[in-house]
Amino acid sequence: MQTEEKATMQLEELEQVAKQVRRDIVRMVHGCQSGHPGGSLGCTDYLVALYFRIMTHSPEFNMNGEGEDLFFLSNGHISPVWYSVLARAGYFEVSELKTFRKLDSRLQGHPTTHEELPGVRIASGSLGQGLSVAIGAALTKKLNNDPGLVFTLHGDGELQEGQIWEAALFAPHNKVDNLISTIDVNGQQIDGPTDRVLALGNLRAKWEAFGWDVLEMNGNDLADVIRVLELAKAKTRKGKPIMILMQTNMGHGVDFMMGSHKWHGVAPNDEQLSLALNQLTSNMQDY
Amino acid sequence: MKKYTYTESKDTRSGFGAGLVEAGRKNKDVVALCADLVGSLKMGDFIKEFPERFVQVGIAEANMMGIAAGMTIGGKIPFTGTFANFSTGRVYDQIRQSIAYSDKNVKICASHAGLTLGEDGATHQILEDIGMMKMLPGMTVINPCDYNQTKAATMAIAEYEGPVYLRFGRPVIPVFTPADQEFVIGKAWMVNEGTDVSIFATGHLVWEAIKAGEKLAEMGISAEIINIHTIKPLDEEAILKSVAKTGCVVSAEEHNRLGGLGDSIAQLLAKTTPLPMEYVAVNDSFGESGTPEQLMKKYGLDDAHIVQAVQKVMERKQALAE
């Protein structure tokens, strides 16, 4: 029973971190009156689980990441959640979060290697490129006999980019089985619900037809996220790349932002910020 | 005029294929990717020797650029291979974000550049690639002139850290540079010293410039011919030193007049020493089907057109002096 207690405690700790990351996100976007809170809040549990529980990684960052697990954010506009998680995991000072999207900052609107921010290994923002990059990094790990895994995150709207399907064909054909990709299936994109803009159809059937091992999880239930990511890790190196379809609520954690595409790329005003922060209590310190 | 002779003709892309194998032997981190054009890119020998270091991507150039960028993470040195059109225009955003902006050590190797691709016609004959690639911050742009120089350039870029665009061609042309040459990125190669006019040529046009120089010598005109194999970074010192002596300029390239080598030189001269200048380049048009020789003639890229451009620019120089 002791191990179960430990796991429960860990989960509680992770939930506290997730609350704080959500506080960081709304404050960062409010601070510069620009950025993408909706998808960031939706993907918070996934990124917290990844960096605080799942991945083998070091905040003593080096670009090549030998022996480490690597993460690539393909839908770069949800940079607030990634920056917050990197800072909270020790990659750089949390105080730097206040520079987000401001002049002379390493925290560009979309992630870049150009400013040498620890944790970032490729620029993203123009959608659809991250899966190819992750495949390349995974191929190099194989050539180097490096046991590390490669993780990627994509938006569901991003799947409308053709390059994704080039990469989808490539990975199973080449048995890239040290790769765990995740799609944030929140059903929203800038112009409205994905079903209305350009429907994605049956994603499980599509990825399975391409030859991927497909899993599903509730991206806003930390316990489920951990369970499925652990399961995904157990399925690596068995000849197939792994795709996780992650159901999330856009804006999760802030009631008036939840489930609507309207908060895709809009900053809260002062009143909305305090409403949001009241819903996101944490025992950690704000930056 | 120095005498340049050749005993054989070869394609520059075969120089790439040979250089790639050598680079692979020298450095185990060299890997190659191709988008279904292994034969055209002459990658067969590399694949035979290093099968595990070759990635066949299929007809998916955007994916190829992304995979190449990703392969640098962990220390590989990827060489991508496809036609120049599909190496640049088709995947400009992928190169911009995942390679240039991300400062990845990818070597974008492009064959069948320019008009001399020939019969396939305008869809395959890109004439804008030098311009597109030189506009990317941090991108090195190289356009060697013959088989030996392409081989040397291919080996040199494997040793250089940073993104590179290496441009070469399809047709068989004279091999006139030494087999054991040293290729220094960014350092122009003096083909012939002269006093009356500076001809700055790149790629296939270097041999045309040599032929033009011989004709000019017969006409009593002393042409300085410089091979600008590296378009970015531009060897400004060599260019300025030459024009200080000659006072007029002809640029020669198998590329659109807009945005190519000529424009790089014009920009340099505009801010230092404005001088009479003529472009030998495609005059802002698409190409068409034909043999390489027919196209070079029709679109004004052969030795005769270089001679005409020299006569024109020297008249302008003369008029200024009077």
Can you characterise this structure?
Chain B: Keywords: Thiamine pyrophosphate. The complex is a heterodimer of chains A (287) and B (322). Chain A is α/β, with parallel strands linked by helices and 287 residues long. Chain A has helices spanning 2-32, 37-42, 44-54, 79-88, 130-143, 162-173, 194-198, 203-210, 222-234, 270-279; strands at 70-73, 150-155, 179-185, 188-189, 192-193, 213-218, 242-247. In chain A, the strands form two sheets. In chain A, strands 1-2-3-7-6 form a five-stranded parallel sheet, with helices on both faces. Chain A has a two-stranded antiparallel ribbon with strand order 4-5. In chain A, a hairpin with a 2-residue loop joins strand 4 and strand 5. Chain A starts with a helix and ends in an 8-residue tail after the last helix. Chain B has 322 residues and is of the alpha/beta class. Chain B has two domains: 10-174, 3-Layer(aba) Sandwich (Rossmann fold), CATH 3.40.50.970; 189-321, Rossmann fold (3-Layer(aba) Sandwich), CATH 3.40.50. Chain B has helices at 12-26, 38-41, 44-49, 61-71, 84-87, 92-100, 129-134, 147-159, 205-218, 236-246, 261-271, 292-298, 303-321, and strands spanning 9-11, 30-34, 54-56, 77-83, 107-111, 140-142, 164-167, 172-174, 189-192, 197-201, 223-227, 230-232, 249-256, 277-282. Chain B has a seven-stranded mixed sheet with strand order 3-2-4-5-7-6-12, sandwiched between helices. A five-stranded mixed sheet of chain B has the order 9-11-10-13-14, with helices on both faces. In chain B, strand 13 (249-256), helix 11 (261-271) and strand 14 form a beta-alpha-beta unit. The chains are: A alpha/beta (287), B alpha/beta (322). The interface between A and B is large, with 39 and 32 residues.
